[in-house]
Task: structure prediction
Amino acid sequence: MGLKSTVKKVVGPEQWNRIRSVRQSYGEFKERYVTLPREAYRQMKRYRKYYSRPSGTAAEQIQARLIFHTHQIEKGLSHTQFRYGFGKNTLKEEAQYLKAYMRAVPNYRNTMPYQSAIAALHEYYERHEPEHKEAVEYAQSLFPAEVWKEVVEGAYSNGGSLVITANSKQNNRSATFSQIVDSRHSIREYANQPVTLDELMPALQMAVRTPSVCNRQPVRVHVVTDPVQIKQALKVQGGFNGYPMPPMLLLITADCRDFLNSMERNEGFTDAGLFAMSLMYALEAEGLAACPLNTMFNRAMEETTRSILSIPDYENLALYISVGHFPESVKTCVSERHEVTDIITVH
Result:
Protein backbone atom coordinates (compact mmCIF):
# COMPACT_ATOMS: atom_id res chain seq x y z
CA MET A 1 0.00 0.00 0.00
CA GLY A 2 1.38 3.42 -0.97
CA LEU A 3 1.95 6.30 1.44
CA LYS A 4 -1.06 8.23 0.07
CA SER A 5 -3.39 5.28 0.55
CA THR A 6 -1.99 4.62 4.06
CA VAL A 7 -2.52 8.23 5.18
CA LYS A 8 -6.01 8.24 3.70
CA LYS A 9 -6.89 5.05 5.60
CA VAL A 10 -5.45 6.33 8.90
CA VAL A 11 -7.11 9.78 8.94
CA GLY A 12 -10.40 8.68 7.42
CA PRO A 13 -12.38 10.05 4.44
CA GLU A 14 -13.68 13.19 6.14
CA GLN A 15 -10.26 14.37 7.38
CA TRP A 16 -8.68 13.40 4.08
CA ASN A 17 -11.09 15.63 2.16
CA ARG A 18 -10.22 18.49 4.50
CA ILE A 19 -6.52 17.96 3.82
CA ARG A 20 -7.20 17.97 0.09
CA SER A 21 -9.25 21.16 0.38
CA VAL A 22 -6.49 22.93 2.34
CA ARG A 23 -3.89 21.77 -0.17
CA GLN A 24 -6.01 23.03 -3.06
CA SER A 25 -6.58 26.39 -1.36
CA TYR A 26 -2.87 26.77 -0.70
CA GLY A 27 -2.07 25.92 -4.31
CA GLU A 28 -4.55 28.50 -5.55
CA PHE A 29 -3.22 31.13 -3.15
CA LYS A 30 0.36 30.45 -4.30
CA GLU A 31 -0.69 30.65 -7.98
CA ARG A 32 -2.47 33.98 -7.55
CA TYR A 33 -0.19 35.80 -5.14
CA VAL A 34 3.26 34.25 -5.70
CA THR A 35 3.60 32.62 -9.12
CA LEU A 36 1.62 35.12 -11.20
CA PRO A 37 3.35 38.28 -9.83
CA ARG A 38 6.75 36.58 -10.07
CA GLU A 39 6.28 35.53 -13.71
CA ALA A 40 4.77 38.88 -14.69
CA TYR A 41 7.74 40.64 -13.07
CA ARG A 42 10.20 38.40 -14.90
CA GLN A 43 8.48 39.21 -18.18
CA MET A 44 8.49 42.92 -17.35
CA LYS A 45 12.24 42.84 -16.68
CA ARG A 46 12.94 41.31 -20.08
CA TYR A 47 10.78 43.88 -21.85
CA ARG A 48 12.29 46.75 -19.88
CA LYS A 49 15.77 45.61 -20.85
CA TYR A 50 15.22 45.25 -24.58
CA TYR A 51 12.38 47.45 -25.84
CA SER A 52 13.21 50.25 -28.28
CA ARG A 53 13.61 53.14 -25.87
CA PRO A 54 14.76 56.47 -27.39
CA SER A 55 18.31 55.96 -26.07
CA GLY A 56 18.59 52.42 -27.46
CA THR A 57 21.72 51.78 -29.50
CA ALA A 58 21.14 48.25 -30.83
CA ALA A 59 20.48 48.10 -34.58
CA GLU A 60 17.10 46.42 -34.05
CA GLN A 61 16.01 49.13 -31.61
CA ILE A 62 17.04 51.91 -34.00
CA GLN A 63 15.34 50.10 -36.88
CA ALA A 64 12.06 49.92 -34.96
CA ARG A 65 11.98 53.68 -34.46
CA LEU A 66 13.01 54.34 -38.05
CA ILE A 67 10.17 52.15 -39.36
CA PHE A 68 7.73 53.80 -36.95
CA HIS A 69 8.52 57.32 -38.16
CA THR A 70 8.53 56.23 -41.81
CA HIS A 71 5.03 54.90 -41.23
CA GLN A 72 3.96 58.23 -39.74
CA ILE A 73 5.16 59.96 -42.92
CA GLU A 74 3.32 57.41 -45.06
CA LYS A 75 0.11 58.04 -43.10
CA GLY A 76 0.47 61.78 -43.68
CA LEU A 77 0.96 61.17 -47.40
CA SER A 78 -2.15 58.97 -47.56
CA HIS A 79 -4.64 61.54 -46.23
CA THR A 80 -7.30 62.52 -48.76
CA GLN A 81 -7.27 65.98 -47.20
CA PHE A 82 -3.52 66.35 -47.63
CA ARG A 83 -1.90 68.93 -45.34
CA TYR A 84 1.13 70.57 -46.89
CA GLY A 85 4.11 70.96 -44.58
CA PHE A 86 2.89 68.21 -42.23
CA GLY A 87 5.09 66.27 -39.85
CA LYS A 88 7.96 68.59 -38.93
CA ASN A 89 8.63 66.75 -35.69
CA THR A 90 8.27 63.40 -37.42
CA LEU A 91 10.76 64.42 -40.10
CA LYS A 92 13.20 65.49 -37.40
CA GLU A 93 12.87 62.12 -35.67
CA GLU A 94 13.15 60.32 -39.02
CA ALA A 95 16.42 62.08 -39.76
CA GLN A 96 17.81 61.29 -36.32
CA TYR A 97 17.09 57.58 -36.54
CA LEU A 98 18.02 57.30 -40.20
CA LYS A 99 21.49 58.63 -39.43
CA ALA A 100 21.76 56.31 -36.41
CA TYR A 101 20.65 53.39 -38.58
CA MET A 102 23.30 54.21 -41.18
CA ARG A 103 25.95 54.08 -38.45
CA ALA A 104 24.62 50.84 -36.94
CA VAL A 105 24.03 48.83 -40.15
CA PRO A 106 26.99 48.61 -42.56
CA ASN A 107 24.93 47.50 -45.57
CA TYR A 108 22.02 49.85 -44.83
CA ARG A 109 21.38 50.68 -48.51
CA ASN A 110 20.39 47.07 -49.13
CA THR A 111 17.80 46.97 -46.32
CA MET A 112 14.06 47.51 -46.37
CA PRO A 113 13.95 50.11 -43.54
CA TYR A 114 16.41 52.40 -45.31
CA GLN A 115 14.89 52.01 -48.77
CA SER A 116 11.36 52.49 -47.47
CA ALA A 117 12.38 55.65 -45.62
CA ILE A 118 14.01 57.13 -48.73
CA ALA A 119 10.97 56.23 -50.86
CA ALA A 120 8.56 57.88 -48.40
CA LEU A 121 10.74 60.99 -48.23
CA HIS A 122 10.88 61.09 -52.04
CA GLU A 123 7.09 61.22 -52.21
CA TYR A 124 7.09 63.93 -49.52
CA TYR A 125 9.56 65.87 -51.67
CA GLU A 126 7.52 65.43 -54.86
CA ARG A 127 4.24 66.43 -53.20
CA HIS A 128 5.77 69.70 -51.96
CA GLU A 129 8.08 70.69 -54.82
CA PRO A 130 7.98 73.34 -56.26
CA GLU A 131 4.97 75.14 -54.73
CA HIS A 132 5.94 74.57 -51.08
CA LYS A 133 9.68 75.14 -51.10
CA GLU A 134 9.82 76.04 -47.41
CA ALA A 135 8.72 72.51 -46.47
CA VAL A 136 11.28 71.00 -48.86
CA GLU A 137 14.05 73.23 -47.52
CA TYR A 138 13.21 72.29 -43.94
CA ALA A 139 13.28 68.57 -44.76
CA GLN A 140 16.51 68.90 -46.73
CA SER A 141 18.22 70.67 -43.82
CA LEU A 142 17.69 67.60 -41.62
CA PHE A 143 19.42 64.97 -43.77
CA PRO A 144 23.00 64.41 -44.96
CA ALA A 145 23.64 65.57 -48.55
CA GLU A 146 24.17 62.05 -49.89
CA VAL A 147 20.86 60.92 -48.38
CA TRP A 148 18.95 63.89 -49.76
CA LYS A 149 20.41 63.18 -53.20
CA GLU A 150 18.83 59.72 -53.08
CA VAL A 151 15.57 61.27 -51.85
CA VAL A 152 15.39 63.69 -54.79
CA GLU A 153 16.38 61.06 -57.33
CA GLY A 154 13.78 58.60 -56.04
CA ALA A 155 16.32 55.82 -55.69
CA TYR A 156 13.71 53.40 -54.27
CA SER A 157 9.99 52.84 -54.74
CA ASN A 158 9.09 50.56 -51.80
CA GLY A 159 7.64 53.24 -49.55
CA GLY A 160 5.20 56.15 -49.45
CA SER A 161 1.57 55.79 -50.45
CA LEU A 162 -0.36 53.82 -53.04
CA VAL A 163 -3.87 54.03 -54.49
CA ILE A 164 -6.54 51.39 -53.82
CA THR A 165 -9.76 51.37 -55.86
CA ALA A 166 -13.13 49.85 -55.08
CA ASN A 167 -13.18 48.35 -58.56
CA SER A 168 -10.08 46.28 -57.74
CA LYS A 169 -12.00 44.56 -54.91
CA GLN A 170 -15.08 43.49 -56.87
CA ASN A 171 -13.90 39.92 -57.40
CA ASN A 172 -12.50 39.32 -53.92
CA ARG A 173 -14.97 36.52 -53.15
CA SER A 174 -13.46 34.43 -55.94
CA ALA A 175 -9.85 35.33 -55.16
CA THR A 176 -7.41 32.76 -53.79
CA PHE A 177 -6.07 33.10 -50.28
CA SER A 178 -2.65 34.18 -51.55
CA GLN A 179 -4.31 36.86 -53.69
CA ILE A 180 -6.23 38.14 -50.65
CA VAL A 181 -3.04 38.25 -48.57
CA ASP A 182 -1.04 40.01 -51.30
CA SER A 183 -3.69 42.64 -52.03
CA ARG A 184 -4.89 43.50 -48.50
CA HIS A 185 -3.85 46.87 -47.12
CA SER A 186 -5.02 48.80 -44.08
CA ILE A 187 -7.62 51.35 -45.21
CA ARG A 188 -8.41 54.33 -42.98
CA GLU A 189 -10.87 56.28 -45.14
CA TYR A 190 -14.17 54.76 -46.25
CA ALA A 191 -17.12 55.30 -48.53
CA ASN A 192 -19.92 57.39 -47.09
CA GLN A 193 -22.27 54.48 -46.38
CA PRO A 194 -22.96 52.35 -43.30
CA VAL A 195 -21.80 48.78 -42.78
CA THR A 196 -24.67 46.58 -41.69
CA LEU A 197 -24.50 43.64 -39.31
CA ASP A 198 -25.66 41.42 -42.17
CA GLU A 199 -22.62 42.51 -44.19
CA LEU A 200 -20.30 41.85 -41.24
CA MET A 201 -21.64 38.42 -40.27
CA PRO A 202 -20.11 36.33 -43.11
CA ALA A 203 -16.64 37.55 -42.14
CA LEU A 204 -17.30 36.80 -38.46
CA GLN A 205 -18.55 33.34 -39.39
CA MET A 206 -15.20 32.66 -41.06
CA ALA A 207 -13.21 34.18 -38.19
CA VAL A 208 -14.82 31.97 -35.52
CA ARG A 209 -13.04 29.02 -37.15
CA THR A 210 -9.76 30.47 -35.84
CA PRO A 211 -7.95 28.08 -33.47
CA SER A 212 -7.60 28.95 -29.80
CA VAL A 213 -5.88 27.37 -26.81
CA CYS A 214 -7.58 24.01 -26.13
CA ASN A 215 -10.58 25.30 -28.11
CA ARG A 216 -11.62 27.58 -25.23
CA GLN A 217 -12.46 30.42 -27.65
CA PRO A 218 -11.93 33.40 -25.32
CA VAL A 219 -12.37 36.09 -27.99
CA ARG A 220 -15.29 38.51 -27.76
CA VAL A 221 -16.25 41.05 -30.43
CA HIS A 222 -17.90 44.35 -29.54
CA VAL A 223 -19.51 45.86 -32.64
CA VAL A 224 -19.79 49.65 -32.37
CA THR A 225 -22.00 51.51 -34.86
CA ASP A 226 -23.02 54.52 -32.77
CA PRO A 227 -21.13 57.49 -34.32
CA VAL A 228 -20.82 59.22 -30.95
CA GLN A 229 -19.26 56.17 -29.28
CA ILE A 230 -16.93 55.61 -32.24
CA LYS A 231 -15.73 59.21 -32.05
CA GLN A 232 -15.24 59.05 -28.28
CA ALA A 233 -13.42 55.71 -28.40
CA LEU A 234 -11.08 56.72 -31.21
CA LYS A 235 -10.31 60.04 -29.53
CA VAL A 236 -8.95 58.04 -26.60
CA GLN A 237 -7.14 55.62 -28.92
CA GLY A 238 -5.41 58.49 -30.71
CA GLY A 239 -4.26 56.70 -33.87
CA PHE A 240 -7.10 57.84 -36.12
CA ASN A 241 -6.54 61.58 -35.82
CA GLY A 242 -7.05 63.46 -39.07
CA TYR A 243 -9.23 60.78 -40.66
CA PRO A 244 -13.04 60.81 -40.98
CA MET A 245 -14.72 58.50 -38.48
CA PRO A 246 -15.34 54.94 -39.75
CA PRO A 247 -18.94 53.70 -40.03
CA MET A 248 -18.16 50.67 -37.84
CA LEU A 249 -15.61 49.95 -35.13
CA LEU A 250 -14.91 46.49 -33.72
CA LEU A 251 -13.26 46.00 -30.35
CA ILE A 252 -11.65 42.58 -29.97
CA THR A 253 -11.25 41.42 -26.37
CA ALA A 254 -10.31 38.23 -24.53
CA ASP A 255 -12.26 36.83 -21.58
CA CYS A 256 -9.87 36.13 -18.67
CA ARG A 257 -12.32 33.60 -17.23
CA ASP A 258 -11.38 31.15 -19.99
CA PHE A 259 -7.82 30.66 -18.73
CA LEU A 260 -6.62 28.23 -16.11
CA ASN A 261 -3.38 29.40 -14.55
CA SER A 262 -0.64 32.04 -14.49
CA MET A 263 1.16 30.52 -17.46
CA GLU A 264 -1.81 31.45 -19.65
CA ARG A 265 -1.85 35.12 -18.65
CA ASN A 266 -0.86 36.27 -22.17
CA GLU A 267 -2.80 33.64 -24.11
CA GLY A 268 -5.81 35.89 -24.57
CA PHE A 269 -3.73 38.34 -26.60
CA THR A 270 -2.38 35.48 -28.73
CA ASP A 271 -5.85 34.09 -29.42
CA ALA A 272 -7.27 37.56 -30.07
CA GLY A 273 -4.46 38.31 -32.51
CA LEU A 274 -5.08 35.09 -34.41
CA PHE A 275 -8.81 35.83 -34.51
CA ALA A 276 -8.27 39.43 -35.64
CA MET A 277 -6.03 38.43 -38.53
CA SER A 278 -8.54 35.80 -39.66
CA LEU A 279 -11.24 38.46 -39.43
CA MET A 280 -9.30 41.02 -41.44
CA TYR A 281 -8.62 38.54 -44.23
CA ALA A 282 -12.29 37.52 -44.13
CA LEU A 283 -13.37 41.18 -44.35
CA GLU A 284 -11.08 41.62 -47.36
CA ALA A 285 -12.60 38.52 -48.97
CA GLU A 286 -16.06 40.00 -48.40
CA GLY A 287 -15.04 43.25 -50.07
CA LEU A 288 -14.93 45.30 -46.87
CA ALA A 289 -12.04 47.62 -46.00
CA ALA A 290 -10.47 47.49 -42.55
CA CYS A 291 -7.61 48.74 -40.39
CA PRO A 292 -6.31 47.31 -37.08
CA LEU A 293 -5.73 49.82 -34.28
CA ASN A 294 -3.91 49.03 -31.05
CA THR A 295 -5.35 49.29 -27.55
CA MET A 296 -2.03 49.64 -25.72
CA PHE A 297 -3.49 52.00 -23.12
CA ASN A 298 -2.43 53.39 -19.79
CA ARG A 299 -4.83 53.02 -16.88
CA ALA A 300 -6.80 56.21 -17.52
CA MET A 301 -7.23 55.44 -21.23
CA GLU A 302 -8.38 51.91 -20.50
CA GLU A 303 -10.85 52.96 -17.84
CA THR A 304 -12.31 55.63 -20.13
CA THR A 305 -12.65 53.12 -22.96
CA ARG A 306 -14.35 50.59 -20.71
CA SER A 307 -16.78 53.28 -19.60
CA ILE A 308 -17.59 54.44 -23.14
CA LEU A 309 -18.22 50.92 -24.48
CA SER A 310 -19.38 49.19 -21.25
CA ILE A 311 -16.62 46.58 -21.38
CA PRO A 312 -16.64 44.21 -18.38
CA ASP A 313 -13.57 44.08 -16.16
CA TYR A 314 -12.88 40.41 -16.93
CA GLU A 315 -12.23 41.12 -20.62
CA ASN A 316 -8.76 42.27 -21.69
CA LEU A 317 -8.69 44.80 -24.53
CA ALA A 318 -6.72 43.37 -27.47
CA LEU A 319 -7.28 45.70 -30.45
CA TYR A 320 -9.77 47.66 -32.52
CA ILE A 321 -10.59 47.09 -36.17
CA SER A 322 -12.19 49.92 -38.11
CA VAL A 323 -14.47 48.71 -40.91
CA GLY A 324 -16.07 50.36 -43.91
CA HIS A 325 -16.80 50.07 -47.61
CA PHE A 326 -14.02 50.84 -50.06
CA PRO A 327 -14.39 54.31 -51.57
CA GLU A 328 -14.04 54.68 -55.33
CA SER A 329 -10.36 55.52 -54.82
CA VAL A 330 -8.24 55.96 -51.71
CA LYS A 331 -4.59 56.30 -50.78
CA THR A 332 -2.97 54.11 -48.15
CA CYS A 333 0.50 53.37 -46.83
CA VAL A 334 2.83 51.11 -48.80
CA SER A 335 4.02 49.56 -45.51
CA GLU A 336 6.81 47.53 -47.07
CA ARG A 337 7.58 44.19 -45.41
CA HIS A 338 10.80 42.42 -44.53
CA GLU A 339 12.07 39.64 -46.74
CA VAL A 340 11.29 36.22 -45.30
CA THR A 341 15.00 35.48 -45.08
CA ASP A 342 15.38 38.46 -42.74
CA ILE A 343 13.02 37.05 -40.10
CA ILE A 344 13.70 33.30 -39.97
CA THR A 345 16.15 31.34 -37.87
CA VAL A 346 16.53 27.69 -38.79
CA HIS A 347 17.45 25.49 -35.80
